[in-house]
């Protein structure tokens, strides 16, 4: 079993003032478990300054597949390392669905991040239509194979986030989570952390983290509420 990891994905939320309060509360309250926050690009400097020397790591939510050049609006992996990022989310379903990121682009971003020394948190997951059609394993395997066909997974983190459970309050049941995590575990080294994400809250985190092939969580909405994120981290800690 891997040491648990709890990652907050702030998505496009926050302000300098709100972040100051949230980061301060997390520094005071998160203990005994590896944790990180993935913040919007403009707040990386703030996260770096506030979290440096603490047990909480930080990262970004996206990265360019290119090293540098005429790519207006993009941010390179090397730039993220200058802000002390350890992690970067790659292939989040919102990037895939809203911005049309393909498996190939997600894999190229993974390679760029890893090449710069970042740890990608590689997100995969099926839509409700895909689940209802019995295609969950096929979809997550295809998304994962895009990376494994190109890179070694190394110390990257895998995150299973069923699209239908993200931001909906509809968490996958423990049986559904374990079924997919067990399937993924067979394809990964025992040392690879496999996180679950999708409406993880203080009232369901313990049951999810207790599953044999779940090594922590990727938390959206509840990561914006200090007491909720701290409580969720506490539940992961009990597993470790
Ligand atoms: P919620 O926890 O808000 O469902 O978001 C999950 C997620 O997308 C984390 O990356």
Description:
This protein is of the alpha/beta class and 240 residues long. It has a single domain, classed as Aldolase class I (TIM Barrel, Alpha-Beta Barrel). The protein has 10 helices and 8 strands. Strands 1-2-3-4-5-6-7-8 form an 8-stranded parallel β-barrel, surrounded by 5 helices. Strand 2, helix 2 and strand 3 (56-60) form a beta-alpha-beta unit. Helix 1 (16-29) packs parallel to helix 2 (44-51), helix 1 (16-29) packs parallel to helix 10 (226-239) and helix 5 (103-115) packs across helix 7 (136-148). The chain is globular. 1,3-dihydroxyacetonephosphate binds at residues 9, 92, 161, 166-167, 197-200, 218-222.
Name the poorly predicted regions. none
Beta-strand percent range: 15-25%
Structurally, the number of domains stands at: 1
Walk across the major sheet and give the strand order: 1-2-3-4-5-6-7-8
Structural class: alpha/beta
- Second rung of CATH, namely the architecture: Alpha-Beta Barrel
DSSP, total strands: 8
Give the overall pLDDT as a whole number: 96
Distance between the termini: 9 Å
Share in helix: 40-55%
- The secondary-structure element order is EHEHEHEHHEHHEHEHEH
- Let me know the largest β-sheet: 8 strands, parallel, barrel
* Cofactors, ions and other ligands in the entry: 1,3-dihydroxyacetonephosphate
The CATH topology comes to TIM Barrel
Overall 3D form: globular
Q: Class, according to the CATH hierarchy?
A: Alpha Beta
Any idea what the radius of gyration is? 17 Å
């Amino acid at each position: 079993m891997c040491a648990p990891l709890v990652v907050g994905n702030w998505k496009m939320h926050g302000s300098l003032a709100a972040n100051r309060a949230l980061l301060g509360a997390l520094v005071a309250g998160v203990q005994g478990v590896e944790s990180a926050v993935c913040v919007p690009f403009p707040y990386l400097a703030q996260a770096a300054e506030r979290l440096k020397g603490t047990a909480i790591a930080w990262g970004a939510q996206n990265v360019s597949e290119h090293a540098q050049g005429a790519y207006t609006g993009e941010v390179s992996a090397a730039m993220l390392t200058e802000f002390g990022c350890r992690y970067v989310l790659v292939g989040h379903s919102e990037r895939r669905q809203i911005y049309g990121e393909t498996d190939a682009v997600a894999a190229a971003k993974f390679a760029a991040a890893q090449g710069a020394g970042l740890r990608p948190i590689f997100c995969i997951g099926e839509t409700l239509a895909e689940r209802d059609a019995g295609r969950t394993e096929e979809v997550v395997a295809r998304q994962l194979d895009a990376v494994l066909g190109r890179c070694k997974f190394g110390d990257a983190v895998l995150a299973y986030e069923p699209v239908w459970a993200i931001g909906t309050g509809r968490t996958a049941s423990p049986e559904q989570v374990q079924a997919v995590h067990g399937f993924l575990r067979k394809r990964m080294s025992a040392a690879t952390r496999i996180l679950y994400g999708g409406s993880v809250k203080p009232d369901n985190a313990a049951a999810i983290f207790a599953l044999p092939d779940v090594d922590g969580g990727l938390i959206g909405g509840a990561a914006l509420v200090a007491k909720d994120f701290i409580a969720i981290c506490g539940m992961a800690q009990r597993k470790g």
